[in-house]
Design a protein that fits this description.
OmpR/PhoB-type_DNA-bd; 5-stranded parallel sheet; Rossmann fold; 44% helix; 229 residues
């Protein structure tokens, strides 16, 4: 049975395009044009993954409200924000509300499809016994690779899928400088250098929120980044 994906987007043409494209790769897809319409449908049946825009009709923060209510109902439901609003404030707000990933609308469909697939793999892994996971530890850091879960000093770090793979790449080779191109390749994104820099800044902020003394990620100017060994 195909996985059930919901897309909440108020622009009819954009919504139809996403519904058609996501359906083409084998998912059962339903589109909704507003927060109330989506919530009415979700009260009858929760999807297995939700893609949400932030501004929904006359609700500039409607997507945030929908994310909040979905998280109350299901702590593990995969949620992706797909929006034109890509300021640090909006990204951090969305992730703090419990979204699993946050993508700008100029993202390629290939990247969106990779994110959907990665989140479903994580959900499948979470249902398996922890003993089957491959564990990578480096000091206070613990990575459960199959579950795409990272913790620092025993506390979960709320990383997006993109951020998870960036940290994973750095930690696998502690002390080695990883270029922006290598980080993009491993995270399956194609973005400019400034966007990679923004990702690294957000990653640092999330670790610092748990441990103000965190300083494990070095910037090597002109070369890339490394995880301190």
């Amino acid at each position: 049975m195909p996985r059930h994906v919901a897309i909440v987007e108020d622009e009819p043409l954009i919504r139809a395009n996403y519904v058609e494209a996501v359906g083409r790769i084998g998912y059962e897809v339903r589109g909704y044009g507003s927060r109330p319409e989506a919530e009415t449908a979700f009260a009858q049946r929760l999807p297995e993954l939700v893609i949400i825009d932030i501004g929904l009709g006359d609700e500039p923060e409607g997507g945030f409200e929908l994310c909040r209510s979905l998280r109350v109902r299901s702590p593990t439901l995969p949620i992706i924000f797909l929006t034109a609003r890509d300021s640090d404030f909006d990204v951090i707000s969305g992730l703090r509300l419990g979204a699993d990933d946050y993508l700008a609308k100029d993202v390629s469909f290939h990247q969106l499809a990779a994110r959907i697939s990665a989140l479903f793999r994580r959900m499948d892994a979470l249902r398996r016994p922890a003993e089957s996971d491959s564990i990578l530890e480096q000091g206070a850091l613990r990575i459960e690779s199959e579950r795409m879960r990272i913790s620092w000093n025993g506390q979960d770090v709320p990383l997006t899928v993109t951020e998870f793979w960036m940290v994973h790449t750095l930690v696998r080779f502690p002390g080695h400088v990883k270029s922006r191109d290598q980080l993009m390749r491993d995270a399956q994104v194609v973005v400019d250098d400034a966007t990679i820099t923004s990702h690294i800044k957000r990653i640092r902020k999330k670790f610092v929120a748990i441990d103000p003394a965190f300083d494990a990620i070095d910037t090597v100017h002109g070369a890339g980044y490394r995880w301190r060994s």
